[in-house]
């Protein structure tokens, strides 16, 4: 009996320790219970990726229309097409009576379009606009371009320009809508002042490779397009804008060609692909002696301006390779 009491006390003490340990474990489990709302909210940002943490998927309702993006003409092309629809469609009028002088003195500064009456001739105005790295001839009040670089829009070539008898013709100023073409499509009804403005309007002029300008001649979009296909859309759009500005018309073949080019601007293939057909350069008839006696005679024959190598050109008419400008 004396030994039983200590044993019982030790058993009761051990039981108390076990009960305390179990109670502690229960308390710890309660503190980490995932059903506790505050702990769940706190853990959410680190365990759940909400929609705001990543870019939303691109829905088909907000994506650009694939058909329009790849086959429809660009906005600028659509505007050009809309303007084209406002132009009258007629056949060519007779070329009878056409002379370069019908459009005034070549490269005249006496015009009411941009750069008119600035003291410089139009040819050099355009060279200064279209060439880069230019050097100006001394003593010309910063008018005359002595040299520069041309990134030719018609051919994609890079051409070094140096003013001179044997070199000036490498870069020529093209009338985007040729004077003869304009004459046969409404310019005969313009006043002399309007025709002079037309011939010197910077919107209708572009410095280009001389060879490309000669191949174009007086061709319209139905007979000639720039070899550089990436520029054709802009080229045709410029022709349309100029014809609308000066109330000139287009032929049906010309309109069809323009429409094909503009439709293809964004990748659409028209029923008949536009092709480049080089027109025959205009033929000028020189004086029987082989040269024109004067610039007046060259203009009367519709040959001015004259470039080195052309029939009728002679150094006595000019000293920089471009005679009777």
Descriptive notes:
The chain is of the alpha+beta class and 325 residues long. It has a domain of 195 residues. The strands form 3 sheets. A 3-stranded antiparallel β-sheet has the order 1-2-3. The chain has a two-stranded antiparallel sheet with strand order 4-5. The chain has a two-stranded antiparallel ribbon with strand order 6-7. The longest helix has 28 residues.
Topology (elements, then pairings):
Layout: H1 4-31, H2 37-47, H3 66-71, H4 75-84, H5 122-130, E1 132-136, E2 145-151, E3 158-162, E4 171-175, H6 179-183, H7 192-200, E5 205-209, H8 210-216, H9 232-245, H10 252-264, H11 295-300, E6 306-307, E7 322-323
Antiparallel strand pairs: 1-2, 2-3, 4-5, 6-7
Distance between the termini: 143 Å
Number of helices: 11
Average pLDDT works out at 76
Radius of gyration, rounded? 40 Å
Category from helices, strands and their pairing: alpha+beta
Note poorly predicted spans: 24-71, 267-290
Question: Helix share of residues?
Answer: 25-40%
Mass-distribution shape: globular
Number of strands: 7
Biggest sheet, in brief? 3 strands, antiparallel
**Binned strand content:** 5-15%
Give helix and strand order, one letter per element, not per position: HHHHHEEEEHHEHHHHEE
Strand order of the largest sheet: 1-2-3
